[in-house]
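Readers outside the structure-tokenisation community will struggle with the description of the input data as it stands. Showing the layout once, in full, would remove most of the difficulty. For illustration, here is how one protein appears when written out as sequence plus structure tokens:
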Amino acid sequence: MSSDWKVEIVECGDLVQDDDEITPPSEAERRWNRYVELADSVTGNEGPSGVAAIVSSLKAEEDYGAYQAAHAALGRFPDSDLGQGVADAARELTSIPQDQSGNILLILTHAGPAAVNAFNEAIQAADPEVSVPVRELVEFHESEEWLSEGSTQNVLLIPRA
């Protein structure tokens, strides 16, 4: 798969929302279908940059089921690539809708120690302008539903300052 898919999945991930009165329904359907097709074509060999592209694509509040294909695609990556890729997309992770960021962090915690360690190491080495908002996002999701269960709390970004 060419690297162009990374640009295209980010573009298609900005799914047309129900309140959009400008975009024709045929274009909305085309984008939705193309997004799912791109996500389904991911093999897991695309490296951390592939993970980062998928995370960056999760822009819409309402995904109408399309993002399930993206979540499944993330499961095809080696754990260390998953953790590194989520960290590489840290800025986007803090700007996508909270349900999407919470789901990504939950997928990350469930992927296991290699994914979590790769993420933690990369975020801890990042500049504070990146690491502080990510820490705040993790803490938010730990206090809310996504990471509020015992097995997912205090897993990411350990040790805490």
